[in-house]
Write a structure and sequence with these properties.
The protein is about 55% helix and about 10% strand. It has about 220 residues and is of the alpha+beta class. The protein folds into two domains: about 100 residues, Glutaredoxin (3-Layer(aba) Sandwich), CATH 3.40.30; about 110 residues, Glutathione S-transferase Yfyf (Class Pi), Chain A, domain 2, CATH 1.20.1050. Strands 2-1-3-4 form a four-stranded mixed β-sheet. β1, α1 and β2 form a beta-alpha-beta unit. The protein binds S-(P-nitrobenzyl)glutathione.
């Protein structure tokens, strides 16, 4: 059955791969499932046809036969459950990998999103320079804890899993801030994610949309 996801017609990041369709593309590439993409303008995302798929009028969505899903975490989890390659067979290891998906989305990402908001949307406020260091330190608190857990390991819990896919995706948002580089093992962890062939294909596909040029190779 054909899988169709939605993505920005033009991502505000110009193709840096930070919009969340990249996570879904990456998961589909890891498990070797082909997919189509329906590109949406901001206007189309708020129209009834898309709101029927996504109550909050956002991307990404996922359609496969009768099934339609929204929320990146739920989509990646669905892909990981249906296809081999993103969750371990052992029941306990599988539960731990799922735990890391939730940790990425619920424990690490909120602080990173707060930082993006503070920088992009609040930078011109008179109180911004006082607040920004507090927000940055909350990110550092999380990174310090994550860095301590990861230690010298390649991935969070044994082999690469959907937990790593989500955590690397969340951390990628920090790359341009310089904060990630304060934790060399986390910077190396993100780099290990980025060199995975599946990530490279996902990144190239979203970049092609945003530059109008077909993926190289
Ligand atoms: N919780 C939802 C999920 O995980 O799927 C959140 C989905 C979401 O935030 N979607 C964003 C969206 O549709 C795009 S990814 N926004 C339009 C709207 O709400 O009207 C978030 C995003 C957007 C842009 C950048 N960027 O430019 O760097 C990065 C991330």
């Amino acid at each position: 059955m054909t899988i169709t996801i939605t993505a920005f017609e033009r991502s505000p990041d110009g193709g840096k791969g930070l919009a969340r369709d990249t996570r879904v593309r990456w998961a589909l590439e890891e498990v070797g499932q082909p997919y189509d993409v329906r590109l949406l303008s901001f206007k189309a995302m708020k129209e009834p046809a898309h709101l029927a798929l996504h109550p909050f009028g956002q991307i990404p969505t996922y359609e496969e036969g009768d099934l339609s899903l929204f929320e990146t975490g739920a989509i990646v989890f669905h892909i990981a459950e249906r296809h081999a390659g993103l969750l371990p067979d052992d029941a306990n290891a599988r539960a731990r990998a799922i735990t890391w998906m939730f940790a990425a989305l619920n424990t690490v990402e909120p602080a990173i999103l707060e930082l993006a908001t503070a920088r992009l949307l609040e930078g011109d406020k008179p109180w911004s320079q006082q607040r920004l260091p507090l927000v940055e330190d909350r990110v550092r608190d999380r990174l310090k804890q994550l860095s301590a857990h990861l230690g010298h390991a390649d991935w969070l819990d044994g082999a690469f899993s959907a937990g790593d896919l989500m955590m690397v995706s969340v951390l990628l948002r920090l790359k341009s801030s310089g904060i990630l580089d304060e934790y060399p093992n986390l910077a190396a962890y993100v780099a290990r994610g980025e060199v995975r062939p599946a990530y490279k294909r996902a990144f190239a596909a979203q970049l092609a949309v945003n530059t109008g040029k077909p993926p190289a190779g």
